[in-house]
Amino acid sequence: MDLNAPVLIHFIDWDLFSRLAVAALLGLVLGLDREVRGHAAGLRTHGLICFSAASMTVSIIALYNQLEGERMDPLRVFEATGAFIGIIGAGLIVFSKGEVKNLTTAAHLWLVAVVGIACGAGQWPLVAIAMGVSLVLLTVLWFVEKRYFPDTEGKVE
Questions:
Q1: For residue 72, which phi and psi values (nearest 5 degrees)?
Q2: How far apart are CA 112 and CA 135, in angstroms?
Q3: Burial class of residue 137 in the structure, from the number of CB atoms within 10 Å of its CB (0-12 exposed, 13-18 middle, 19+ buried)
């Protein structure tokens, strides 16, 4: 079996470090909202998912380039990530007494995975826009919901 050439530890460059470090930090920032509100998936979960998605993306891009695109479909990384996050999200969502719980947290984990993939791919404008929009959706809209729709959170009719 032919394997790709190993990359020794002294070849870690700042680009690779920045992609993974930024993903981990942004995952923690996005998880802070869920942690503060006491939801099941908090800081560590968000940080790990974002970092893992970035690591997986960097790895698949490197393998694709090393194999020169032969016998590879790098887009499968998105399929695998989506399936995995779907399983985690489904486990988080609870329907009890006419209320749905953790739906936002499940959707948020999907977003964190996408941000991690974008960090791994070095798509910095996408990362910046996704972070800005997600922070507005999670924080600003939370205050709007609490102020103007206090009795509708999680209710299913």
A1: -140, 145
A2: 12
A3: middle
Q: CB under 8 Å to 156, separation ≥6 — which residues? A: 95, 98, 99, 100
Q: Radius of gyration (Cα) for the chain, nearest Å?
A: 18
Q: What is the pLDDT at residue 156? A: 46
Q: Which pLDDT does position 157 carry in this prediction?
A: 45
Tokens representing 149 are 């729709």
H helix intervals, 10-156: 14-36, 43-66, 76-92, 103-120, 124-135, 141-148
Q: What local confidence, expressed as pLDDT, does residue 151 receive?
A: 66
Phi, psi angles (nearest 5°) of residue 67? -90, 0
Distance (Å, whole) CA 120 – CA 128: 13
Q: Are 130 and 112 in contact (CB under 8 A)?
A: no
Burial class (CB in 10 A: 0-12, 13-18, 19+), 7: exposed
Predicted confidence band at 93 (pLDDT cuts at 50, 70, 90)? confident
